[in-house]
Design brief:
Among the domains are: 177 residues, Rossmann fold (3-Layer(aba) Sandwich); 75 residues, Roll (Luciferase, domain 3); 94 residues, ANL, C-terminal domain (GMP Synthetase, Chain A, domain 3, 2-Layer Sandwich), CATH 3.30.300. It is 29% helix and 26% strand. The protein has 15 helices and 25 strands. Strands 15, 16, 18, 19 and 20 form a five-stranded antiparallel beta sheet that branches. It has a four-stranded mixed beta sheet with strand order 2-1-10-9. A four-stranded parallel beta sheet has the order 4-3-5-6, with helices on both faces. Strand 1 and strand 2 form a beta hairpin. Helix 2 packs across helix 3 and helix 10 packs across helix 11. The radius of gyration is 23 Å and the shape is globular.
């Protein structure tokens, strides 16, 4: 099976069912399939060949769902970008992938108007107001080893890299995630996350492949409107990130919003602060809460079963179906349970590599001494308890070295989050002549809070080793985040 074939089968089976809701627009499976086939035929007629890269510069709306499936249907490779992508990054991705085609939102002409001059391989730009209305589904023989997508990392550190994912990679991740999520055909998925990134993208693909209704909520920046939309559509599933879930919990009008239809809430992209877990369980008693961990390079790695959320709120589980994982030391040797080390992953969902970056690929995909194949070294530091439950410690690159000691920002952030009045925080290391690096905390207060620097410092000194307590505390209105919801620590460090 290829990635888009589940949607094709579903659309043929339930053509009258609502597939997508976006604002006032409601699109049935049959109508969506017709529009997908029309664009796929248009792409092939324009000269798009199997394996060609097609960049998508689209809003996360119906046109995006059409474009993803149409590119796959035409046998090409889709490269998703957000509609807010700046011209220089767009040109970089087009040139890096040698994309022949750009599918772009017509309202963004100012962003892409001069690209044909800057991008020699680009042969055509098709704007959304030029999408074909009719066309027959084109034949495009492909196999599951062919590339389906190149998804660029958020670029929070260094130059963005294109993660190469085959049909097999994405279908393997899909099947494993579906096995534990248990999405159903009668689900209404409230998707407020950008579908241009892995977390949101897979919910769009899984929902449409399964036959659920996907509600493309574009009101994440306005929590009250988002909550009202979820209530109106009787959403049963919400994939979330910490900032989104916290904004819903902090709504002054939360008591008036009926989210009783929710049966599943998930968190990924960034670790959910432990104090938020009991708040979510109390606010949404009918919904299962799944805490998950993953990365673009393999989609998902672990999830914490809902029944463990109250008992192990700081864990992200023990892995997911059809994969193996372990912790490794600095020499890549496997470590036993109860250790701390880099998380290593083996499975069919692991990427093929980074697009045209053999050195970076070699750093992440390394030979396994156990299995004689390449496995993914995540670059993330984890610890396990005696039973193998995974606890995220830090990105290896984010570890702070102060006074000769190593500090994991996550541990300091967890302590600060326990303070009443804290909405969000991020911890980094800053240069210090005496310490090497000093621990600095950026803190966002909750509405109405009058929390002081002294209170934050005293709290941390009372709950952490002295060397871990922040030497600097700065209150800010917001924290820089990627489109996928991760805090940009590199931006805070001036990178």
């Amino acid at each position: 099976m290829l990635l888009h074939e589940a949607f094709e089968a579903t659309a043929s089976r339930v053509p009258a069912k609502t597939a997508l809701v976006c604002g006032d627009e409601r699109v049935s499976y049959g109508e969506l399939q017709r529009r997908v086939h029309a664009l796929a035929a248009q792409l092939q007629a324009a000269g798009v060949a199997p394996g060609d890269r097609v960049v998508l510069l689209l809003e996360g709306d119906v046109s995006y769902a059409i474009a993803v499936h149409a590119v796959l249907c035409a046998g090409a490779v889709f490269v998703p970008l957000t509609a807010t992508t700046k011209p220089d990054k767009l040109a970089f991705v087009l040139n890096d992938t040698e994309a022949t085609t750009l599918l772009a939102d017509a309202r963004l002409r100012g962003t892409w108007a001069d690209l044909p001059v800057r991008c020699p391989a680009l042969r055509r730009v098709i704007a959304t107001d030029g999408f074909a209305a009719d066309g027959e589904r084109p034949p495009a023989p492909r196999i599951d080893q062919d590339l389906a997508a190149i998804i660029y990392t958020s670029g929070s550190t260094g130059t963005p890299k294109g993660v190469m994912l085959t049909h097999l990679n994405m279908l393997s991740a899909w099947r494993s995630v579906q096995a534990y999520l248990g999405l159903r055909t009668d689900d209404v998925i409230g998707l407020a996350l950008p579908p241009t990134f892995s977390y949101g993208l897979y919910h769009l693909l899984m929902g449409l492949g399964l036959g659920a209704t996907v509600v493309l909520e574009r009101q994440a920046a306005f929590p009250l409107r988002l909550a009202q939309g979820l209530q109106r559509e009787r959403a049963t599933v919400i994939p979330g990130v910490p900032t989104l879930l916290a904004s819903l919990l902090d709504l002054p009008q939360r008591a008036t919003i009926d989210l009783s239809a929710l049966r599943l809430v998930t968190n990924a992209a960034a670790a959910l602060p432990t104090p938020l877990v009991p708040r979510l369980l109390e606010a949404l008693p009918r919904a299962d809460l799944l805490l998950m961990y993953g990365m673009t390079e393999c989609k998902r790695i672990s999830y914490l079963p809902a029944e463990e959320a109250a008992r192990r709120p700081g864990s992200v589980g023990r892995g997911m179906p059809n994969q193996q994982h372990w912790l490794a030391d600095e020499l890549s040797r496997p470590l036993p349970h109860g250790s701390t080390g880099e998380l290593v992953v083996r499975g069919a969902h692991v990427m093929r590599g980074y697009w045209r970056r053999p050195q970076e690929t070699a750093q992440r995909l390394r030979p396994s001494p156990i299995h004689g194949e390449n496995v993914l070294h995540t670059g993330d530091l984890f610890r396990t308890d005696a039973e193998g439950w995974l606890h995220f410690v830090s990105r290896l690159d984010d570890i702070i070295k102060t006074r000769g000691e190593k500090v994991a920002p996550r541990e300091v952030e967890e302590a600060i989050h326990r303070l009443p009045g804290v909405a969000a925080c991020a911890v980094i290391g800053v240069p210090d002549d005496a310490l090497g690096q000093a621990v600095k905390a950026y803190v966002v207060r909750r509405p109405g809070s009058e929390l002081t620097v002294r209170e934050v410092t005293r709290h941390c000194l009372g709950h952490l080793e002295n060397y871990m307590a922040p030497k600097q505390v700065e209150f800010v209105d917001t924290l820089p985040t990627t489109e996928s919801g991760k805090i940009r620590h590199a931006t805070l460090r001036g990178g």
